[in-house]
Amino acid sequence: MKPVALAALLAASTALAPAALSAQELTIGLAASTTSMDPQFYVVGPNSAMARNIFDGLVNQDENQQIVPALATSWKIVDDTTWEFTLREGVTFHDGSDFTAEDVVASINRVPQASTNSPSSFMPYVKAIKDVQAVDPSTVRITTDEPTPLLLNNLSRIAILPAEAAETTTEQMNSGEGVIGTGPFQFVSWVPDSEVVVERNDAYWTEPAAWEDVTFKVFKNNSARVAAMLSGDVDMIESIPTADTRRLVDAEDVEVVSVAGNRVMYLHMDQGREESPFATDAEGKNPLRDPRVRRALSLSLNRAAIVDRIMDGQGVPAGQLVPEGYFGYDSEIAPDPYDPEAAKELLTEAGYPDGFELTFHASNDRYPNDSRVAQAIGQFFSRIGIDTSVETLPASVYFSRASNLEFSFIMGGAAVETGEASGVLGPLLETYGESAGRGNRGRYSNPEFDSALSEARQTLDEEKRRELLEKATEIAMTDLGVIPVFYLANTWALEDGIDYPGRSDGYTLAYDVRPE
To answer: I need a labelling partner for 210 at 20 to 30 A (CA). Which of 153, 299, 444, 462 fits?
Structure first.
């Protein structure tokens, strides 16, 4: 803290809590590293969360993933394929330039360029947009090639940059050049796998943040993150390791926040290749293409035990990709029961009474207890006769190799980024293509599923759209294009004297951290 600011606070009161004394500076311990400073490059939680500290969309999502005005104050549907947005006036970018409609046009048009070589791009969020025009400096008109009822949800994922940044490359942004938004904080520096430093945007279009300087420090090691919290090296941490929850709850001067999360942990299987590198039967063929095998694998899992014993209760067993309460959730679909005998019967029916060989790959530093969860899942598979090996890798290696289809059976975590079912059904299960199914690492493909999902995306009638999303979910879960395991809870630990409401998307946003 600056000496003058500290002196002023001490003069005001000698009885302030320690957190209040450092109210101009905030240090946050993150569980995973941002992999790019380009907010339009890669759809992955750590990147999206960091981007929200620096950038705004036309609309944003609140802590419950409901759409709220941001750079657009209002909008209207002109006709089935035309939307008009009224922009917030008086907004400036971090470089002092005025925000206008031209910036919106350039930002949306930049997404295809930013998507080059992306492991999971933002293209699905803009692919329905046929044209975007600046009607005047404070009005934007977006035309879609078909009715697009989820346009607002999709636009909440697109960061708005200055028009001058339209040609700025991801590589340039990763070097620190052109990381300019309208958000509550402005970029200072980034050291990959180490820290991101931002400073307050005093010209923010709503109330400025409580913190003058914020440092996000990366602690991939769970014990190190907890130790940093308990030692006072950081003011708050995200993703409390489940084994340390009670320790932090009981700790003096520490508060724990836990909210239901939107991230589902799931298993993805190679369903596109007849011969797969790490899943082979006696004839060298890929058994994962058989839906009976996939169902057997699902029935072998004791989801409740995984949540209770490994996650210390921080989770909910999952039978589909969105949790209850989200648009598109199908109340008729429950998690598969734990039934190893039924699983063995299905394997026998599929022609594998003696199982087959499988190597299961997972990350070991991306999600809470990911390595332990993977080991437990491997043991469940082994109990029904599948000769299972488990290999875990650092996320920095694992995800790129998984995207290159180097594995046969993997574990991932997918957040409902748009706040409704299509936001995860599409990336994970839609037939892989140039702008579809970019996270479909199992190459699942079902035309009936694609059709239901596509129609839902074009249906403005809310009830009919809900029915179509539930139909798509039913198809995918009948096929088990992926196997849902459980939904994560989102947790934070904070020093006494500061508050954080928590978010269903798990994002850690410094703007929402407030002194008590």
So the answer is: 153
The alpha carbon of 279 is separated from its chain's Cα centroid by a whole number of angstroms, namely: 28
Q: What are phi and psi of 191, to 5 degrees?
A: -115, 110
Distances (CA, A) of 298 to 269, 293, 351, 484, 485: 12, 9, 17, 8, 8
Cβ–Cβ under 8 Å, residues 38 and 176: no
Of residues 435, 279, 284, the one with CA closest to residue 358: 279
The predicted pLDDT at position 18 comes to: 39
Mean pLDDT of the region 338-351: 97
Give residue 240's pLDDT band: very low, low, confident or very high (50, 70, 90). Answer: very high
pLDDT tens per residue across span 48-67: 999 999 999 999 999 888 88
pTM for the model: 0.69
**Bridge partners of 85?**
75, 140
Residue 130, SS3? Answer: strand
Contact status, residue 39 vs residue 174, Cβ threshold 8 Å: no
Instruction: State mean pLDDT over 149-161.
Output: 94
Q: Reply yes or no on whether the pLDDT at 202 is more than 90.
A: yes
d(C-alpha 294, C-alpha 347), whole Å: 9
User: 234 or 369, which is more confident?
Assistant: 234
Please report the beta strands in 254-314, taking only residues with DSSP state E, as ranges in sequence order.
254-269, 279-280
Encoding tokens for residue 204? Answer: 């923010």
End-to-end alpha carbon distance in the chain: 18
Task: Say what the pLDDT of residue 23 is.
Answer: 58
The neighbouring-strand residues paired with 27 are 215
**Is the separation of the CB atoms in 27 and 234 below 8 Å?**
yes
Residue 11 binned pLDDT confidence (cut-offs 50, 70, 90): very low
Nearest to 289 by CA among 300, 302, 280: 280
Q: What is the pLDDT of residue 458?
A: 84
Could you give the CA distance from residue 460 to residue 80 in angstroms, rounded to a whole number?
8
Phi-psi region at 188: left, alpha or beta (left = phi > 0; alpha = psi -120 to 50)? alpha
Q: Report residue 16's pLDDT band, with 50, 70 and 90 as the boundaries.
A: very low
The CA-CA-CA angle for residues 207, 211, 217, to 5°, reads 130
Q: Tell the residue number behind the tokens 């990381």, with chain if given.
A: 179
Can you say whether the dihedral through the CA atoms of 379, 380, 381, 382 is positive or negative?
positive
Provide Rg for the chain, Cα atoms.
23
Mean pLDDT of 356-360: 97
Contact 377, 269 (CB under 8 A): no
HSE toward the beta carbon, residue 8, CA cutoff 13 A: 8
User: How far from the centroid of its chain's Cα atoms is residue 427's Cα?
Assistant: 12
**H or E segment to which residue 244 belongs:** none
Q: Which residues contact 393 (CB under 8 A, 6 or more apart)?
A: 361, 362, 363, 364, 401
Q: What tokens appear for 367 in the block?
A: 């999600």
